[in-house]
Design a protein that fits this description.
CATH class of the domain at 3-88 and 150-202: Alpha Beta
Structural class: alpha/beta
Strand order of the largest sheet: 6-7-8-3-9
Helix content: 25-40%
Largest sheet: 5 strands, parallel
Number of strands: 9
Radius of gyration: 17 Å
CATH topology of the domain at 3-88 and 150-202: Rossmann fold
Shape: globular
Distance between the termini: 32 Å
Length: about 200
């Protein structure tokens, strides 16, 4: 069973304490919704989990071991996505998808990439530069990425931003499939997702 834990996490910005004593444990088949008002530190906490921001106190553990002791294995097991879609304007939807997968070391053949873009509604737009896509369509490139990356740990920052009802429903299905495969997820989201039951972790409130 895969587990992700945070123990006594704390982060400050100058004299401002964003959060302190934040703890959680997520196991295979579970997901946690990270909630809190704007500026409470949700994005910062996710970045701490991803190893992108240094903490003042606490530790993150993967399968019971501090991630610093198993950093390579943890990085290979983690899919982190920030609050921006992370696509390049000059690249097509297909090229962006291929690049996102390559950065993770995931090999997907052209037919699998084509099928994933078709499923997220970008089949006819796969060769368009990203600058010609709407905000929601750019987000759908990330949904195609989720389809093709088998990573067990998701840490996603507001993954439903700019998605319409159909896109949100698609994300919920992808999340359910991820959990059914034994994955786990920590999501910063203000939405109530119709997926497997979650726990809510509130910070800054």
């Amino acid at each position: 069973m895969t587990t992700l834990e945070g123990r006594g996490l704390a982060v400050s910005r100058g004299v401002v304490k964003l959060f302190r004593d934040v703890s959680f444990r997520i196991a295979s088949g579970e997901w946690v919704a990270l909630r809190g008002p704007n500026g409470s530190g949700k994005t910062t906490l996710l970045r701490c989990v991803a190893g992108l921001t240094r903490m003042d106190a606490g530790e993150v553990l993967f399968d019971g071991e501090p991630v610093t002791a198993s950093s390579e294995r943890y990085r290979d097991s983690l899919l982190y996505s920030g609050h921006l879609p992370g696509v390049k304007d000059d690249l097509s939807a297909a090229e962006n998808l291929r690049g996102l997968l390559a950065l993770r070391g995931v090999a997907a053949d052209a037919e699998a990439e084509r099928a994933a873009l078709e499923q997220v509604g970008l089949g006819k737009r796969r060769n368009l530069p990203a600058r010609r896509l709407s905000a929601g369509q750019r987000r759908r490139i990330g949904l195609a990425r989720l389809m093709l990356d088998p990573t067990p740990v998701w840490a996603l920052d507001e993954p439903l931003t700019a998605l319409d009802d159909e896109g949100q429903a698609l994300f919920c299905r992808l999340l359910s499939q991820h959990l059914d495969r034994g994955g786990l997820a920590l999501l910063a989201t203000h939405h109530d997702l119709q997926s497997a039951p979650s726990r809510v972790l509130r910070i800054g409130s």
